[in-house]
Design brief:
The protein is mostly helical and 83 residues long. The chain has one domain: ACP-like (Non-ribosomal Peptide Synthetase Peptidyl Carrier Protein, Chain A). It is built from 4 helices and no strands. α1 packs across α3 and α1 packs across α4. The N and C termini lie close together (6 Å).
Amino acid sequence: MKPDRPALLKEIVTLLQSVAPELEADTLLAQRPLRQQLDLDSMDWLNFLISLHQRFAVDIAESDYAQLISLDDVADYLLARLT
């Protein structure tokens, strides 16, 4: 069963907070680039993607990284791959 979008978004934000503890979830804009909003370097971003893989058991191909820009993008990507 696919998770509902609000629950998935909450999980994604929790994972983001593990790499960006200063993140205040209510200030995050779902359609803006996450790396810019949170000032994440490439290592932080990679750690976030690894945490997504571990939490949701979804393989994220390196060729797909460019698709994962905003919170909405990440949620759409995961929803399309979760059963």
